[in-house]
Description:
Layout: H1 2-18, H2 29-38, H3 42-55, H4 60-72, H5 76-89, H6 94-108, E1 116-126, E2 133-145, E3 148-159, E4 162-176, E5 179-187, E6 197-207, E7 214-224, E8 229-241, E9 246-257, E10 263-272, E11 279-289, E12 296-308, E13 313-324, E14 328-340
Helix pairs in contact: 2-3, 2-4, 3-4, 4-5, 4-6, 5-6
Amino acid sequence: MKAAAAITGKCLAGLLALAPAPAAAQLNPYEEAVAARQTGEPAKAVELLAPWIAANPQDVDARVQLGYALLALNDLDAAEAQFRAVISTAPDYADAAQGLALIERRRSAAPAQQRYVFIEGSLSDLSQGRKGWSEIAVGALLPVSRDASTRLNAAHYRRFGVEDVEVAGELTVQTSANSWLRAKGSGTPSADFRPEWSVGAGLDRRLGSSANPTVVGMDIGFQRYPVQDVLLVSPAVTQYFAGGRYSLTARANAVRPEDDSFRIGGALRADYFPRERVRLFLGAASGPDTDLGVVTTTTALFAGAELPLTSTLSLTASAAQEWRDGGFYRSDARLGLRLGF
């Protein structure tokens, strides 16, 4: 009997070994799409979610996932439509509200989508009994086509009791979903300390299409002051975090005065976007400065904010403390209003 039982047990073990292993749990299309989006495959996520939502139109979770996948592909209009569909059904859905805020910030980063007028003024207090500085500027940012905008402004400067009025303009063209080109220039009639004229160009490139992109940029410029010519080169990199809610920008500044070598400096700035149309920032900078045409070394700490007052009117404010060559310092306060339309 024992021998027979042993033989029977061996047979059963053999049959179990030959039987196929249980199949791994299969992901449904929604779960597969979420995994694809989280691993950096937004196009695959969109391909999976579109038929899923067509069959399950009330699945707000799937719509949110589709919205973020479309956002990663920089299809802002389609992403907005998904988030708004969720909000209409579930007004308190925080992820959908955050998606809409992120879309607004993305659009704010594309000047061609904006139009506003602004006024800004500043006062500076200087040490060692020097006369204070002041500025006041007015201007506008206006679209000139679907992919291009222009910023125009005029500014009155007072330095050590001397006044200059400068007019400036900048054209920005979005050449692709992730690239922007800029051209700018300025002129100051009968300049005393501002550039008699200046020209410049710049490029910004967004790397990748994730919700936390890296943006690299380069600006070059030439300024003709009454005392000398100055060449400027300024590369920069900005990294976004937490779905675009935070950013950190590192910028190098290289300034070459006439008949001299380049002087190098840099700046670091952090921005926080807690909600739509709200920005807080702070930073530090050290290096060459050309505000008066004579290149000097400065070190500065600064901070500021942009806050909405109404649905179209925003307040801008900032303060800075600056230490300059020659043993004197400057405290600066700025205040402005921006009206969108």
